[in-house]
User: Fold this.
Amino acid sequence: MSYVMPKFRHPNLPKNDLGYTIADYDGSISTLCAGCGHDSISAAIRNACFLSSIPPHRIAKLSGIGCSSKTPTYFVGKSHGFNSVHGRMPSVATGASLANCDLTYIGVSGDGDTASIGMGQFIHLIRRNVNMTYLVANNGCYGLTKGQDSATADLGAVSKYGQTNPFDAIDLASLAMLQGASFVGRSFSGDKEQLEPLIRAAMAHNGFAFIDIVSPCVTFNNHPGSGKSYAETRENLDAMSMDFVPMRKEIRAQYDAGTTQGVTLHDGSVIHLHKASADYRTDDRTAAMISTQKAKDEGRLLTGLLYLDPNTQDLNQNLRLAARPLNTLGKDELCPGSRVLDSINEGLR
Amino acid sequence: MKQIEGINDFVVKFANVNGSGSASANHLFAKAIFRMGIPVSPRNIFPSNIQGLPTWYEVRVSSKGYLGRRGGVDLMLSVNPQSMEKDVASVEPGGYFVYDSTKPLAPHLKRDDISYFGIPLTEMCMREYTTPRLQQLLKNVVYVGAMAALLDIEFGVLKSLLNDQFKGKEKLISSNVHALEMGYQHATETFSCPLPIRLQRGGNVAPHILESEHILMNGNTAAALGAIYGGATVAAWYPITPSTSVVDAFAKYAERMRIDPGTGKRNFAIVQAEDELSAMGMVVGASWNGARAFTATSGPGLSLMSEFLGLAYFAEVPVVLIDVQRSGPSTGMPTRSQQSDILAAAYASHGDTKHVLLFPATPRECFDMTVQSFDLAEQLQTPVIILSDLDLGMNDWMSPPLEWDDNYQMNRGKVLDADGLDKTENWGRYMDVDGDGIPYRTLPGTHPTKGAFFTRGSSKNEMAVYSELGEDYVQNMDRLLRKFETAKTYVPQPKTHPPIKVTKPKTKQKLGALFFGTSASPAYEAVEMLAEEGYPIDTMRIRAFPFHISLDEFIHGHDRVFVIEQNRDGQMRRLIINECEIPPGKLTPVLNYSGTPITARDIAGQIRQALNTKKADVVPLHTETV
Assistant:
């Protein structure tokens, strides 16, 4: 791998609506293993932010601890990031979004960070419907500590050390739907065509948007017998492809009648779902959960936008917060002054 | 038998069953004394239980204005058979025992050195009221009426308090006043009222107290108001006794004072988190993003927050944590007071960490220090922990009124906005530009091209770039230490008093006493007691950690220093020994860790004993044999 990021960029790089080129969304160079699925996710996030014309500095990136959580340094370097505490990124993201509702929050976590140490915070983050995009780079193992099984390792999967996993995997996407997440997707780090529009739709969604992304660990979990290797994932992939059309853009991809479904998101943008089967419904949570479970029973990995409710109230709305970000309020708005205090004193005599 | 006498100087204790509605009646009693202009300090001594267990309410009346516990009980009012035996035994010789005489008093409860006053409270209420609820609730008010007669509480004051309490609910007012009258009348007809211990408006009350416009409030409410006035917009918490009422009060005031006039929406957010880890995470996230945020908790919560406190220390994120201490370790005694989180707070988290601590001693200080904590946290970019306790937080204290300077400006510390970034060359998040160890911060979303950085708990260089180089790590850790030195000059300084003059001192040693928080009131009282006995002791009240240089000077200026605190291990003493490198023998611990607040008599007794005890001979160390 290269340790130096080349500074040279093509002078005629295409620009987005804001005049930024893709280079404006670069981060520092990745220190993950060559071929790591996580790097593809970082690239997808970078491309999604560029394509959706989000000003780089108006993005806030948050993560916990682990290989996945190192990645926010590797995309959109012009934005602030916070590599917090193992499994506790949800609470940091909650506090951050309460303080400033005007930024786009992207959380990157892993299967250890979310499905084990951070399970409590993850569930409560969904319950509160914090307005953010939450991505899990799911490789079924603990990479930074050299390949132990994680809680999303598949039942019967064989580790690099030859041990068979006797425990059933925690299915984060199903869990998120069960807990009422308003946007639940699943994807594969190797499926750029699906992942990019999915991330763009997630960022446009008002409320908690979750994407579980199978992201193979090339070093510890990419061998025959692993449930989350590149080969295994490609073999069993049952992918819905999709396109994302931002607000105020009239580009409509042509699909065969009856196989596409357009869903308008909170900000007016539209996600077009190219459905895997004609009877799949993204607007019915129970049906989506059944389809996801059925696919699992059949050994298929259903990917795409599994469930979406575009009309939810996020945490800040539920708390009836004023529109102006709390972190911009000053003494005049916040401090009631001496006369009010005098009357409080009076009431305590 | 010589009965205890005294005007405006005695201790009354109520022995009740919890969940029986006694709290508001007992509060009425204490507030009436306060309204008569007489210094009073009431304390709830209650179990970790909702209904059915013994609970006490101790009311200290002190003409000199001592607000700590004195020790001992002069008058016990007992309506709880469960605890009666111990309650009788706890009365001072010559004292008074008031009880519900509906059932005759068991013979073993009779003492011949105290006076008994039986009032058939249950019988009177059964006769007067039809529903069990009224019979139960108003029984408490009936005994307050009787106490008014026995102690000479002005009846009009009680009535006006009921008018205030039940404003607009005439039926409630008249039924309560009637119950008061029943008790009052019964006592005047049955006993010789008032007793030799009694109240008198004005009386012998110290003039400076008579002239002041004191308020009666608890520390948790004061801290909540401090958070409102200090500009806190995000509160994240998890319910835990005895801190819960901090956020309850914050919510109450915020709903009144923080509603956007245009839209009716809230200029504040309160989140009840799933646990204390999450509560602290939310505070860290909100503060990182430039809002003033705080949490309130107690010992077990502090333990859970420790990991995040280490992150906030190392990543330099402001945090305000109000720790209302209770008895630990573990669940300990959740409704009993202690000052036992000192070391856990000072060094919370793994690795080399130190945190700024504030020690309020009065509700007024709870207010002032909470306001100040937000400034300090942002100026120093680090956690600030306010160490209150159950006694201060949940009990009503007579306090000077809260004051506010309308010229106050929030000190947001070194934060670069877009302009500032444009004017700054070569900005690095962790550069010590000013030599005070405090670097310049930026907030997310500030500038399109400048000031973005990655906040992390792992080591980094001055430019906030990940680094495992030893020199980068050491440079950063040394700067954090420099910052902690700077903090010494920012935090509230200790309070001293001019030395007490003793004409014929019984000792040539220069004696000093150190204390903090709720140990202060009884410590001052004990020092005055000992001065009268010929032992002059200089005092210093510690108000913050890191310690100010004057603490070192105080210790070096005295031959022997007593450290008065409420925990088993002498945690403040250890912190001083550790941080100021003081020979341990110089600091004598004076401790109470029973869960009930330390008393002046206890402190004086321990110091007396220490002064009369010869220094122990040094036991030679045995040579270790293999």
User: Anything to note?
Assistant: The two ends of chain A are 73 Å apart (CA to CA). The CA atoms of residues 37 and 171 of chain A lie 19 Å apart.
